[in-house]
Structures are given as C-alpha cells and as structure tokens.
Amino acid sequence: MAKRFEISDNLGVRLLFTLGASEDKSFDELVKKESLRYHDIIRQNFHDTYYNLTWKAIMAVRFVKEHCDNVKYILVTNDDIIMNLWEVIETLSLYSEIGKPKEELERTVFCYVIHHLKVVRNPKNKWYASRIEFPNDYYNDYCSGVAVIIPSQLISNMFKASKNAPYYKIDDYFMTGVLATKAGAKFKDISTKILDHASRKNRSGFSSGRFLFQPTGTVEQAEAMWNNLKRYYDRRQKQQKRSNKALHF
Fold this sequence. Notes:
Distance between the termini: 42 Å
EC number: 2.4.1.-
GO cellular component, one term: Golgi membrane
Pfam families: Galactosyl_T
Number of strands: 8
CATH architecture: Alpha-Beta Complex
Largest sheet: 4 strands, mixed
Oligomer: single chain
GO molecular function, one term: hexosyltransferase activity
Shape: globular
CATH topology: Spore Coat Polysaccharide Biosynthesis Protein SpsA, Chain A
Membrane topology: Single-pass type II membrane protein
C-alpha cells in the first residue's frame, strides 16, 4: 500500500479515500491505523452502505472545498477501477490548450454521460426509486460513476447546492445530475475512453493510452495492469530523454 505515495507524488496527484463508519470495531481500528500512517482517508460518522454513498459524495465535496484550494481537477472513481493517470493528465492538459474560453473550461465535467435514462420503478431492483423519491419518469443527463473529472471551480457551488437539494440515494445522479448541474456544469462525454468490463485482450489498448479507465476483476489483476502501465511510461520517458539528448548534441 505504500506504493500509492510513489504513484501520486511522481504525477502531481494526491490520492484520497472516502469512508463511512463501520459496526465492526476491529475494522475501525485498522482504518484508524491506516489513516494515521498515510493521512489519506476522509471519514465521517454515517454507516458505509450502498444507499449512503450520497453522504459520501457530499463529504468529499465539502472536504475539497475546505482543504484543496490549489487543485485544478478532482477525479472521482470507484475502488475497482484502474486509470491511466499519465494519459488522463495529458488529455486534460491538451484540452486546456485548444482555445476554449476560460469560463467553459471551468464548467466542463469529463465523464461517461448517461442520457435520458428511465427511472427504475421495480422495488426489487437495486436502482429502484419511488415516485415520492423521484416523481419524473426520466433522469436529466448525468455522469456514470466509473470516472468523473470535475474542475475545482465548480466545487464551491456544488457544496452550496448540496445544502438545499433534496437528498437522493443514487449518488451518481445526485453528484452530477443535481449538484454539478445546479453549479452550472457542462458535460463532456468521454465514454469512448472508458472500458465497461475487465478484459485481458483490452489491456494493450489500455496501457497504450487508447483508454483512460477500466474495471479490474481482482487486486492481482489491478496490480499487473498498473505495473504494465508503469513499465510502458518509464520506457517512453527514457526514449524521450534520449531523443532530447540527440537534439542537443
């Protein structure tokens, strides 16, 4: 687990984990020890369950607003997703250089945009919502929770919106369909850069930068994919250094 500092520091990225409370005291003790060791866990006193993920989203927005004034972007993802951070950083840098107005850049949220999704009314379904909870038949556009990249300028208004917005248990929709939309966000679809399943045959495309995000099946698979990424970009960096030396010769 100590490797994560090497990952984040070398790329100018700070990695944080959001957690709620657990009824398992032994697990709580492990989390406390981990937090004291790495100082990268954000935690509040709500039960860490699926339908409390919205509280976790609000907690994250508040933390960023209060403690992360100097960041450019906030990337929200799940713990079973591996990302090509090198290409994510490069993509964001290139996008900021293509002449878009500053106001537009500061409102652009990058994600897999979900359009006109019908609300699930089957009580047995995981994403069920009653008409009391959500009276409309369709959701407004919002982002899949696989990966959401939010410019820091939106965070303050998202936090303000969270104080008045009715609580909604489906966190992906609440975070982007409600809070980000109220904050004036404009969604930029990057669905072609996101793989929606863990597949061995797609790993080469992932490591070469064609894809930015991919689910992982196991911890071992995630570690193997990350090591492949690191080797690929270490080689590329060495090649660039050799090319630069040749140019200066």
